Amino acid sequence: xxxxxxxxxxxxxxxxxxxxxxxxxxxxxxxxxxxxxxxxxxxxxxxxxxxxxxxxxxxxxxxxxxxxxxxxxxxxxxxxxxxxxxxxxxxxxxxxxxxxxxxxxxxxxxxxxxxxxxx
Length: 119
Fold this sequence. Notes:
119 residues; alpha/beta; Rhodanese-like_dom_sf; 5-stranded parallel beta sheet; 5 helices; Rhodanese-like domain-containing protein
């Protein structure tokens, strides 16, 4: 009986917790970005140096990260990216922990996107 309860508890934890979806940024198509909130979590200076079309800049390391996300519905799909993928993964974890239901981390970051564009 104890084993069954342990397995049941394990299943509840595994299936009850939201998982971070990950898509390699280099495999993105423009169609995948049509109905999502695309967020670049790099610093404003990094963002100004170049970013994906239609991306919003919400700096992960800034004091207003949480405040700026108040304007984003928790039911909207959110795609996050940064320079190489570390900050965006942390931001995605934070978003899931704060009730955002559909969060995707774009792995590889802006650097991988630029690499894909090179001939």
